[in-house]
Amino acid sequence: MIMRKFFQYVLMTVTAMMVTSCASDMDGALVKTDKSRTQFVVGDFPAFRDSQTRTVGTEDGGKTSWVDGDEILLSFTSKILGEQRATLTKTSSGWEIKDSPIYMREDEAPAVKALYAPNYEWKDNTLSLKDGTVEGTGEYIEVDCDVHSADEIIVPFNNATRNYSRLRIATIKNEPITVGTEYFTPVAGSREDSKEYSLTSDNNGNVFLYGSFVKNSTVTIKYNGTYLANHAFTGTTENGKSYALDATVISENSTDDIGTAIANKIADDKTNINLILTSEADENVFENIQYGLMEASNGTINLTVMGCKKIPSSAFKHFTMLKSITLPDVEEIGEYAFANCSWLQKVVLGNLKKVYGNKYYGGIFDGCDPKYYIDLVLSNDQKVMRGKEIEDGRYCWTPDMENYNNSMYHKSQKFLDYDFKSIKCGYQTYP
């Protein structure tokens, strides 16, 4: 009995000594990282490689250097201390941890990862998207850090490689743009068969997507519901490369500038031409548009004209270079507007209120053969048009109360007394 108590006493004494020793060792080895002790050495910001050989819109190489206010998300992993999170912020005096300090052991170098992802933040120690942001619209660069000691941590962004590409979409400045994608994998996200992004262009007229496209991935750009551009990828994009898609819009105050700007596009082998005009652009504007398109080959140009509500008589007469024309805002069209556009295949119109001329004299498609060659797309709100002679001897079509969509005229592919290859109105296309 005495011997048993003796051994129990010895065991309790040894255990107490071990616990005391361990506790002392833990306290002595812990070091708090803060700006007074720990120096974070952050490498230069890595630039994208540009895949373009020609200028598209206003070039933007993206971020090229660190600036005050930039944030780097840090994660520390220790076998003993577990996981810790911190946000490193660039200030005028260097890089500092802005939230709770990180604790390290002097006898153990933790694994430290750094992430530059301006759309993300730590929330309850979990990486989360910031409010109002979506995957694939910002950088996401990860690096492993070198921990020399609690006094110095190297963040080697200068050696970072991206596992994604960047798509720069050049379009209208400071405007909401809708970008539709198919088979696009946003960085840090999962591939979706189809997704739509609502983005706002910057001061240079650019919007960006970060991620990976594969063969047959598509991108479609719309402004106020009007298509500006679409592109199908013929192969997989390369990591670390920047690509550019031209969805630019020509909007000039001087009519002469419109013609020159269009001519420059044609010289650069562009076939999609997007314009914004005033609501009642006059004949001089359309003459300059024709001048700009003169060097284009027959049936090659897809022309979109936004903003213009009134198309003058003969505005696009003899525009044989047109393959398609889109006029989403048009309400009034004059006689012979598309006369002798013999290569025209598709016409998209706004909600029409007046159209002058008839099939036999002054018709807007005079000299064309819409029955066999033209697909017509009408506004969802289009009404059936009724024609009659008016006071000045002109013939004028105006809407009545009947919806055109699914009317007898729609089903028989007839509009303004013309027969068309097909007519789409609303969600229905005939035949």
Output the number of helix runs. 5
The portion of residues forming beta strands comes to 35-45%
- Our Rg estimate from Cα atoms comes to 33 Å
Characterize the largest beta sheet: strand count, sense, and whether it forms a barrel: 7 strands, mixed
Give unreliable regions as ranges.
Answer: 1-28
Q: In which range does the helix fraction lie?
A: 10-25%
Number of strands: 33
Give the integer mean of the pLDDT values: 89
Overall geometric form: elongated
Q: What's the gist of this structure?
A:
Pfam families: LRR_5. By secondary structure, the protein is mostly beta strands.
For the structure shown, list the relevant keywords:
about 425 residues; mainly beta; seven-stranded mixed β-sheet; 5 helices; about 40% strand; elongated; disordered N terminus
Describe the structure.
Keywords: Signal. With 431 residues, this protein is mostly beta strands. The protein has helices spanning 2-29, 255-267, 283-293, 370-373, 408-411; strands at 30-33, 39-42, 49-50, 71-78, 82-91, 94-97, 102-105, 111-116, 120-123, 126-129, 141-144, 146-149, 152-155, 165-170, 176-186, 195-200, 206-223, 226-232, 241-246, 272-276, 301-306, 310-311, 322-327, 332-333, 346-349, 354-356, 375-378, 383-389, 395-403, 414-415, 418-419, 422-425, 428-430. It has 5 helices and 33 strands. Strands 3, 14, 15, 16, 17, 18 and 19 form a 7-stranded mixed β-sheet that branches. It has a 7-stranded mixed β-sheet with strand order 20-21-23-25-27-32-33. A 5-stranded antiparallel β-sheet has the order 6-5-4-8-11, with no helix packed on it. Strand 28 (383-389) and strand 29 form a beta hairpin. The chain is elongated. The chain starts with a helix and ends with a strand.
